[in-house]
Specification:
The protein is of the alpha+beta class and 437 residues long. The chain is built from 10 helices and 11 strands. It has a domain at 12-293: PPM-type phosphatase domain (Phosphatase 2c, domain 1, 4-Layer Sandwich), CATH 3.60.40.
């Protein structure tokens, strides 16, 4: 009481990827997820990150467009919330009330307006309705004729990060996770018990604004070390919720030890593999975090190393690939190419180097006979071969010893991802309790 809050300072970053689901690739269905952040540079605060997941049901045949409208409308409204200026401790209560009372209604209203404009330019045709009947959804045609917005149905996740507060927003399924400095993963939003199996609330519902959840967090003290937003295709790729939750601490550990560039380069691959091995659904993942969690830049080698002419060329060292000693000798480790995904061991074992005390089995006996008069040359060949036999065999293959193979890029631990032969995309139906067909 009576003290001025000390707002956290520092730079935040945001990055994300969206990938087409394995089931959609096979069926020729476009990616129905969408992601957007502000500013485009991904550097803040303030930062805005929004993710939307279009429904995969046949009746939601324009959900990819609806998802795009969702992230555009929400990002724009979050920017308007910031228009009053930097966060003021005396105004946090007013900002919280404005967000809770006005954002849900404005988001749903502007989303429906965007859908209405699209319908005006691209009306639903009789061919579209006939295609629904052919896809064995007898009630779909009547539902679309009654409310065309259903064709655009999508969920919504969003987070606004400022130097004074964080605002979380959610409508429908999907996940928002926060990871603390000690690696503890929590959900800022309470779980909606009605969202079971493939059912979800949606922007296309008549009273969708009633279903929007908002959480306001004033940053008086510690803030999250990492915030994750993901469409439900990611969580559905794991055998249980505990396995999915662990991915939050895994990604935080990779950011801390290997840096931002490694995550940027491999994020799309991680999500694609998760969809193939798990749900088959489109997967979108957005990350927001303070740059203070990233490893410090390495000092320039020239400032601490001798001049190049004094280096020993026989045994070069690369600081980037030096790792702490391990229990097993490095020469017996598998190369990255032989390690299978999800932690499976590869049967392949690198070629072992002969001990220094052993000699090859009489290589001079296998020397091809020389022509007459070439005995001298033959004797020289025998002497050279015997001389080489006395040396350790590791000297004969310096590439295997002196040049360690580059390590594979790290990835979140996905051992617990389902590995089904024919993964199916959730239909993501709207529960009947919310509207009548």
């Amino acid at each position: 009481m009576g003290t001025t809050p000390q707002w956290p300072t520092g730079v935040w970053r945001v990055l994300g990827r969206t990938v087409q689901g394995a089931a959609h690739v096979r069926a020729g269905v476009p990616n129905q997820d969408a992601i957007q952040w502000f500013p485009d540079s991904g550097v803040g605060p303030p930062l805005i990150l929004s993710v939307s997941d279009g429904h995969g049901s046949p009746r939601n045949f324009r959900s990819d467009v609806g998802a795009r409208f969702a992230v555009e409308v929400t990002t724009g409204l979050m920017r308007e919330l910031l228009s009053a200026g930097p966060p003021d401790p005396a105004r946090l209560t007013a900002i919280k009330r404005t967000a809770e009372e006005r954002l849900p209604g404005e988001i749903t209203r502007r989303w429906r307006e965007a859908v209405a404009r699209h319908l005006k330019d691209h009306p639903i045709t009789p061919e579209d309705l006939e295609a629904l009947e052919k896809r064995r959804d007898p009630k779909a045609r009547r539902a679309i004729e009654k409310d065309p917005h259903i064709a655009y149905g999508a969920t919504l996740l969003s987070v606004l990060v400022t130097s004074g507060f964080i605002l979380y927003l959610q409508l429908g399924d999907g996940d928002i996770l926060t990871v603390a400095e000690n690696g503890e993963v929590t959900r800022p939003m309470p779980h909606d018990p009605r969202l079971m199996a493939n059912e979800t609330t949606s922007l296309c519902m008549t009273d969708a604004w009633r279903e929007v959840q908002i959480k306001f967090q004033a940053l008086y003290g510690p803030h999250p070390a990492l915030i994750l937003l993901s469409s439900d295709g990611y969580a559905n790729s794991f055998v249980n919720d505990a396995a999915f939750i662990k991915v939050g601490s895994d990604i935080l550990d990779i950011l801390r030890t290997d840096g931002l560039e490694v995550v940027e380069q491999n994020l799309e691959t991680w999500l694609t593999e998760a969809s193939k091995a798990g749900s088959g659904d489109d997967i979108t993942l957005g990350l927001a975090f303070p740059t203070e969690i990233l490893p410090s830049p390495k000092s320039a080698p020239s400032a601490v190393t001798p001049k190049p002419r004094r280096r020993k060329a026989a045994s070069p060292r690369t600081p980037e690939i030096v790792r702490p000693p391990e229990k097993e000798p490095p020469t017996l480790e598998k190369t990255p190419e032989t390690v299978k995904p999800h932690g499976e061991e590869s049967p392949g074992v690198p070629e072992q180097v002969l001990p220094a005390t052993e000699k090859p089995a009489e290589p001079t006996v296998a020397v091809k006979p020389q022509a007459e008069g070439a005995a001298g040359a033959q004797e020289v060949q025998v002497e050279v071969s015997q001389g080489e036999a006395e040396k350790p065999s590791s000297a004969a293959t310096p590439s295997e010893v002196e040049k360690p193979a580059p390590e594979a890029p790290p990835r979140p631990k996905l051992e617990l991802i389902k590995n089904e032969e024919s993964p199916r995309e959730p239909s993501k139906k709207l529960p009947n309790i919310f509207y009548a067909d």
